[in-house]
Design a protein that fits this description.
The protein is mainly α and about 325 residues long. It has three domains: about 100 residues, no CATH class; about 130 residues, no CATH class; about 80 residues, no CATH class. The protein has 14 helices and four strands. It has a two-stranded antiparallel ribbon. A two-stranded antiparallel sheet has the order 3-4. The radius of gyration is 25 Å and the shape is elongated. Bound molecules: heme C (7 copies).
Length: about 325
C-alpha cells in the first residue's frame, strides 16, 4: 500500500515539475523577443526602408537583466503579463508610454495565498512613511521593489550577511554618498551626503555593512517581518546603547531573521549574535563582553583624544 502511495506521489511530483518547466520554458521563449533588446547593451533592428541593420545602445534605465529576472519573485511571468502585448511591435507605439501599471495590491490584495505577507498592513505603513506618494510625487512600491529583479531574502532564510547586503542595496540605489539621479525625479529637497548625515557614527562603512538601514530608520510592526514605516531622519536611532548593550534592539529584529530550523540548532542568541555577527556589548559571554567593552572604550577613547587634539590645534591656530 505504502509503495503504491509513494509511486502516486512520485508520478504526481514528476508531472508537476514537468508542468512547471513547460510553463517556464514557454514564457522564456516568449520573453526572448523582448530580452533580445532589453537584455542587451546593444540592440539592433532592421530598417524597413533599405533592409539595413541598425545598431543602437539600449539606455541604461530600459535594461532588464535576464539572470536577475529569472531568479526574482516574479520569474514565472511573461513580460506581456504586466506590459500590454502591443509592445511586441517596434518602434513601440507612442501611446504605450501612458500604459497604466499594476500596483502590488492589484494582484496580492485580499488574496489568502499571500496573507502571511500582510500586504494591506505594509501598504498602510508605506502610506505613512517618508516615501509615501503624498510626500514624494510618483513614489511607489516599485521604486524599492524593482519589477524585474526583486526577490525576498529574510523570509527564505538567506544568511544575515546576504540579507543585510540586499536590503541595504535597495536603499543605496538612491541614498549613496552623492545621491542617485533618480532623486532628481522624486526629491523635494536635496539631502546631505551620507557621510555627513551619519558623521556622528564611527566606522560608518562597517555599520552600513553590518546593520540594515531600516534597523535605525523604520519602526517595527508586530505582524510584519520587514519594517516598512521609514520615518523622518530626526526620529532615527542614534543611541549606541540601543544596539551595543545586552538587551540590544537587534535581538527583536534579528529574532525574526532566523528560520526556525536554524534557531533550534544553535539556540538563538548563540546562532545570531555569536556565529553570524558579534555585536559588541550584546553577548551573554562575560569574558567576550569585558574584552569587547575594553576595545569599545579604546575606540571611543581614541575618538576623544583625536577630538581634544583637534580642539587644541584649532586654539593654537587661533592664537597664532
Ligand atoms: C528591437 C528592440 C526592442 C524590442 C524587441 C522590444 N523593445 Fe521595448 N524598448 C526598446 C527601446 C529602444 C525602448 C526605449 C525607447 C522607446 O520607448 O521606444 C523601449 C522601451 C520599452 C518600454 C518603456 C516605455 C516607456 O517609455 O516607459 C517598455 C515597457 C518596453 N520597451 C517593453 C518591451 C516589451 C514588453 C517587449 C517585448 C514584448 C519589448 N519592449 C520589445 C526596444 C525594444
Ligand atoms: C511583475 C510585473 C512585470 C513584469 C513581469 C515585467 N515588468 Fe517591466 N515593468 C513593470 C513595472 C511596474 C514597470 C514600471 C516601473 C516603475 O514605474 O518604476 C516596468 C517598467 C519596464 C520598463 C521601463 C523602464 C523602467 O524600468 O521603468 C521596461 C523597458 C520593461 N519594464 C521591460 C520589461 C521586460 C523586457 C520584461 C520581461 C523580461 C518585463 N518588463 C517584465 C512590471 C513588470
Ligand atoms: C501582475 C500581478 C502581480 C503584481 C503586480 C505583483 N505580484 Fe507579486 N506575485 C504574483 C504572483 C502570481 C506570484 C507567485 C509567483 C510564483 O508562484 O512563483 C507572486 C509572488 C510574490 C512574492 C512571493 C515570492 C516568493 O518567492 O514566494 C512576493 C513577496 C511578491 N510577489 C511581492 C510583490 C510586490 C512587493 C509587488 C509590488 C512591488 C508585487 N508582488 C506585484 C503576482 C503579482
Ligand atoms: C523604502 C523601500 C521600500 C518600499 C517603499 C517598499 N518596500 Fe517592501 N521591502 C523592502 C525591503 C528592503 C524588503 C526586504 C526584502 C527581504 O530581504 O526579504 C521588503 C520586503 C517586502 C515584502 C516581503 C516581506 C516578508 O514578509 O517576507 C513584501 C511583501 C513587501 N516588501 C511589499 C511591499 C509593498 C506592497 C510596498 C508598497 C505598499 C512596499 N513593499 C514598499 C523595501 C521597501
Ligand atoms: C527610489 C529612490 C529611493 C529609495 C530606493 C529609498 N529612498 Fe529614502 N528618500 C528618497 C527621497 C526622494 C527622499 C525625500 C528627499 C526629500 O526630502 O525631498 C527620501 C527620504 C528618506 C528619508 C528622510 C530624510 C528626512 O528628510 O528626514 C529617510 C530616513 C530615508 N529616505 C531612508 C531610506 C531607507 C532606509 C531606504 C531603504 C529601505 C530608502 N530611503 C530607499 C528616495 C529613496
Ligand atoms: C545606526 C543607525 C543608523 C544607520 C545604520 C543608518 N542611519 Fe541614516 N541616519 C541615522 C540618524 C540618527 C540620522 C539623523 C542624523 C541627524 O539628524 O543628525 C540619519 C540620517 C539619514 C538621512 C537623512 C539625510 C538628510 O540629509 O537629512 C538619510 C536619507 C539616511 N539616514 C539614510 C540611511 C540609509 C540609506 C542607511 C543605510 C545605508 C542608513 N541611513 C543607515 C541613523 C542611522
Ligand atoms: C542599530 C544598531 C547599532 C547602533 C545604533 C550602533 N551600532 Fe555600532 N555596531 C553595530 C553592529 C551590528 C556592529 C558590527 C558588529 C560588531 O563588530 O560589533 C557594530 C560595530 C561597531 C564598532 C566596530 C567594532 C569593530 O569590530 O571594529 C564600533 C566602534 C561601534 N559599533 C561603535 C558604535 C557607536 C559609538 C555607536 C553610537 C554612536 C554605535 N556603534 C551605534 C550596531 C550598532
Amino acid at each position: 500500500m505504502k509503495k503504491v502511495l509513494n509511486l502516486i506521489l512520485f508520478l504526481g511530483f514528476t508531472f508537476w515539475c514537468f508542468a512547471q518547466d513547460h510553463v517556464n520554458s514557454e514564457n522564456r521563449i516568449a520573453n526572448r523577443h523582448c530580452l533580445d533588446c532589453h537584455g542587451q547593451r546593444v540592440y539592433s533592428f532592421v530598417n524597413p526602408d533599405d533592409g539595413s541593420t541598425v545598431r543602437k545602445l539600449m539606455p541604461v534605465d530600459f535594461r532588464v537583466d535576464s539572470a536577475l529576472f529569472y531568479t526574482g519573485a516574479h520569474h514565472i511571468f511573461k513580460c506581456v503579463d504586466c506590459h500590454v502585448p502591443e509592445y511586441d511591435s517596434f518602434p513601440h507605439p507612442n501611446q504605450l508610454r501612458f500604459e497604466p501599471m499594476y500596483a502590488c495590491l492589484d494582484c496580492h490584495g485580499g488574496d489568502d495565498t499571500y496573507a502571511k505577507y500582510h500586504f494591506e498592513t505594509i501598504d498602510e505603513q508605506f502610506q505613512k512613511s517618508v516615501h509615501s506618494p503624498e510626500t514624494l510625487n510618483g513614489f511607489t512600491c516599485w521604486n524599492c521593489h524593482d519589477p524585474h529583479s526583486f526577490r525576498i531574502n529574510q523570509r527564505t532564510g538567506e544568511s544575515i550577511a546576504n540579507t543585510i547586503a540586499y536590503d541595504n542595496a535597495v536603499c543605496m540605489k538612491c541614498h549613496f554618498e552623492t545621491g542617485s539621479e533618480v532623486m532628481l525625479l522624486l526629491a523635494n529637497e536635496k539631502l546631505k551626503p551620507m557621510s555627513v548625515s551619519h558623521d556622528w557614527l564611527p566606522n560608518q562603512e562597517l555599520h552600513f555593512r553590518q546593520v540594515r538601514c531600516i534597523e535605525c530608520h523604520a519602526a517595527m510592526h508586530d505582524s510584519l517581518l520587514v519594517a516598512h514605516l521609514v520615518s523622518p531622519a530626526d526620529s532615527a536611532v542614534k543611541q549606541c546603547k540601543e544596539c551595543h548593550s545586552r538587551n540590544t534592539m537587534l535581538l527583536s529584529s534579528w529574532y525574526r531573521f532566523q528560520n526556525i530550523e536554524n534557531r533550534n540548532k544553535n539556540g538563538f542568541v548563540n546562532g545570531v549574535l555569536l556565529n553570524e555577527a558579534y555585536v559588541i556589548g550584546a553577548s551573554r559571554n562575560e569574558i567576550l563582553n569585558i574584552l569587547s567593552l575594553i576595545l569599545f572604550g579604546l575606540t571611543l577613547g581614541g575618538i576623544l583624544v583625536h577630538a581634544l587634539f583637534r580642539l587644541k590645534m584649532n586654539k593654537r591656530k587661533r592664537h597664532e
